[in-house]
């Protein structure tokens, strides 16, 4: 796992009483990074340098 933006201990806070597999954390990390890349493209397409919630 390289430069993950997902913190496994924080995932455990969202799912108390459950174990969090590393494959879930890795898959979620890739999903989130993809969402952010898409949001950046939308902001660029709208001539902005600020990525906002509406870009998701």
Describe the structure.
With 56 residues, this protein is an all-alpha fold. The longest helix has 24 residues, at 22-45. The mean pLDDT is 94. The chain is built from 2 helices and no strands. The chain has a domain at 21-55. 55% of the residues lie in helices and 0% in strands. The two termini are 25 Å apart.
How much strand content do the residues show? under 5%
Order of helices and strands: HH
Shape: elongated
User: Which secondary-structure class do the elements indicate?
Assistant: mainly alpha
Q: Which bin fits the share of residues in helices?
A: 55-70%
Query: What's the main sheet like?
Result: none
The mean pLDDT is 94
Distance between the termini: 25 Å
> How many strands in all?
0
| Unreliably modeled segments | none
Rg is 14 Å
Number of helices: 2
Task: Write a short abstract of this structure.
Helices cover 55% and strands 0% of the residues.
Descriptors:
56 residues; mainly alpha; 2 helices; 55% helix; elongated
Question: What is the topology?
Answer:
Elements: H1 8-14, H2 22-45
């Amino acid at each position: 796992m390289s430069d993950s933006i997902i913190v496994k201990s924080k995932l455990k806070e969202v799912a108390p009483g459950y174990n969090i597999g590393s494959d879930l954390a890795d898959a979620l990390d890739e999903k989130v990074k993809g969402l952010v890349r898409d949001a950046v493209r939308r902001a660029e397409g709208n001539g902005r340098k600020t990525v906002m919630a509406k870009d998701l």
